[in-house]
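Retro notes (design track)

What went well: tokenization of the new backbones is finally stable.
What didn't: we kept losing track of which sequence belonged to which structure.
Fix going forward: every design gets posted as structure first, then sequence, in one message. First example under the new rule, 195 residues:
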């Protein structure tokens, strides 16, 4: 088992530009979105830390309740987790089990990788669809959290739906890249140890 972010990727390990021009355009759009989501998530994590620190200080030293911080931090963490999933997938940074890849022939391993990507795509597409259904339900029914602050639930559901949609598109991009690639698979560079 390995993690794609154990070391900083070198230029040869960065996601390759697909051969197909349409797939390359999709890759460029997703890359720009993923980088924007990454920077926004960094800011959200810093804000989350500041809000939680403020909450502890306000409660301990000033005995002032803060009923809004839990919802705000949970909403930001939902955004961070789901919006960065596509970025992690673009580097194949999610955890991968390597027990089979080391013993299978390269051609069989390539089919296995394609099959894993297709199954992952189908699962994420279903998850995206259900996330958008949750968002629509929360929006149309005006659902809120049960706290006294009561922010609308469409906020975290929209972040979850958007993040899962981007992850689904990222996996679709990987499938399309594999299917349209003109270069031999042996020459392709991937993040060390992660397929």
């Amino acid at each position: 088992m390995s993690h794609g972010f154990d070391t900083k990727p070198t230029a040869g390990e960065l996601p390759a530009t697909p051969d197909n021009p349409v797939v390359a355009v999709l890759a460029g759009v997703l890359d720009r979105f993923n980088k924007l989501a990454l920077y926004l998530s960094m800011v959200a994590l810093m804000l989350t830390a500041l809000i939680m620190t403020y909450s502890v200080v306000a409660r301990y030293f000033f005995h002032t309740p803060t009923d809004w911080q839990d919802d705000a931090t949970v909403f930001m963490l939902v955004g961070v987790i789901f919006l960065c999933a596509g970025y992690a997938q673009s580097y194949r940074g999610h955890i991968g089990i390597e027990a089979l890849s080391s013993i299978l022939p390269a051609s069989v391993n390539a089919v296995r990788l394609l099959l894993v990507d297709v199954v992952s795509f189908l699962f994420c597409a279903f998850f995206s669809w259900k996330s958008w259904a949750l968002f629509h339900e929360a929006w149309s029914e005006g659902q809120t959290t049960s706290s006294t602050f009561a922010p609308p639930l469409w906020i975290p559901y929209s972040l979850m739906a958007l993040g899962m949609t981007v992850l689904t598109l990222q996996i679709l991009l990987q499938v399309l890249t594999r299917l349209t690639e003109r270069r031999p698979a042996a020459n392709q560079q991937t993040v060390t140890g992660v397929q």
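Added context from the reviewer: The helical segments are 21-62, 69-83, 85-90, 106-141, 154-180.
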